[in-house]
Amino acid sequence: MRACIQQRFHQLPHTRFSFLHPPRIHAYTVANVENPSAPSREDYAYANVFLWNTMIRKQAENGDITRDPPLLYYIQGLRTGLRPNGQTFMYLLKALVCGKNVNEGEEVHASVVRTGFASSEFVSGALLGFYVANGFIGQARQVFDEMPQPGLVLWTLMIRAYVCLTLPGEALELFRTMRRVGVMPDMVAVATVVSASGLLGDLGVAKTIHCFIEKSRVEVDAFVSSTLINTYGECGSLTDAYRFFQETAMKNTVVWNTMIHQSLEHNNLDLRKQLFDSMPERDVASWNSMIRGFANVGQYEEALALFHDMEISVFRPNTLTLLSTLSACASHGALEAGAWIHSYVNDNDLNRDGSLDSSLIDMYSKCGDIAKAIQIFEESPRRDLFTWTSIICGLAMHGHGKKALCYFSEMNESQVSPDEVTMVGVLSACAHAGLIEQGRRYFQSMEKVFGLAPKIEHYGCMVDLLGRMGCLKEAYDLIMGMPMEANEIIWGSFLSACRVYNNVELGEVAARRLLELDPRDPWGRVMLSKIYAEEAKYDRSMGLRKEIKEKGLKKSPGCSSIEVNGSVHGFLVEDNSHPCYNEINSMLEKIENLMN
After folding, report:
1. CA 239 from centroid of its chain's CA atoms
2. Model-level pTM?
3. pLDDT tens digits for 369-400?
4. Rounded to the nearest 5 degrees, what angle is found at the Cα of 206, between the Cα atoms of 202 and 207?
5. Residue 563 in 3-state DSSP?
6. What is 412-458 written as a DSSP string?
7. Are 223 and 239 in contact (CB under 8 A)?
8. Which of 73, 179, 275, 348 is the most buried (most CB within 10 A)?
């Protein structure tokens, strides 16, 4: 980069610098920005620091720092005899932050020191922000420490830097130092320190900071209030968060939404509903929090009902609303409701950029309409990681393994790199299609080609694939060689494969591991009992069934659901709680009679 700047510098028309009248400066700058065909900036000499600063500032605003690096304009100005001021360095550092030019930033830092601006709090703040934006917290702290008497702004910037880089301990220690030297915080500094205590997750520290705020009589605005509520929630105390919410006089919509968010995080459904119903004023974020909260805890019908309530209110659903609602439809299998929302999106032109395509593909896939999912993907203007992953996982879910792998090949050809979720879909597709060689190859390529370390989900897919194909010994070796402990899903998948291929020895190992993970789950005993029965080891089979009965172990009942007229009805085994139970049974009897 430095060599490039030097080369460009020597190409500049240095002899053509002329002194411009100040009123014409703005006209020249605007003309150059708004009209690309106007004479280039090199054709205009700048007569004073104001124009020099303006050129650097416009360079940063335009984002055109690769073709014409801001440092080039700085060097050019120095060559003409101009002396930089504080604004010169602030604009220059801002431009370099946009381009992540660390080496050039260090050169500017050296120039700041040489020209005597290192004592300027504003310039030091810009330097500190530059280093933090590039992840160099050590250099940022050095800038701070070299200030003889940093003011409140610089103290706050340094504390916030530690918070942004998830270093709450250092942030709180610096705040203690700040108080020891007698600097009094304002609302911004207080909110930053409160955030640090939330990151630390220590309820005692959070209460200490809260106590300091009350004793020091620092003004508590809505921002500080919402930060305190969040902090108490992050420290695990919804009670303290709600107590402060009730006590604070600053209750705008943001504060209400923050309290609702924390009630959702702590799964307090009653408080969530109470708060939402009591809100004096709601906004789109209030509705979104409630819909997302219902969807996250599995109350999909409530989420969909709330979406319809929002749709007829004065507030219009936005992208976040639709993402949460489509997720609820997908998880609930509500195809009719999902299709209605899709129509709503199209009617109101809410998916012009294709940002909802991945959610629509996911919804249709999970609701059983894979053909519609493929159609949306093929028509999508947005072929990013999420849309590719959604269609690959959807096809794998429906057993279309070969088609899923074809899309994965197209994805690679499009120079879109997969992530961990994509690879789960790819390996699942191999398992459903019985493509064992491809599965092995893709699993090995995760780290070698894509730089992705396999997680437990990927090992689970491989165990499923190997088990389906009867490679039980290879599957067992893979489980034993995993860098993490296998969970009940992996051992359960392996046990099912042992039953299919009647492998008593490995089946016993899998059942034993399942019992260690969950002694109260009878499923492992039931499966092993069936393996024994199929191998004519009836005494062992009966012994396991007797053990299940004596310990009172019961399997979780199976569940099925169906969507009728926009409502999803769920049924459990031996469950007669449905309001139409008698009518359903009567219809089943009629069908049986007709079949007989």
Report:
1. 27
2. 0.67
3. 999 999 999 999 889 999 999 999 999 999 99
4. 120
5. strand
6. HHTTPPP-HHHHHHHHHHHHHHT-HHHHHHHHHHHHHTT-----HHH
7. no
8. 73
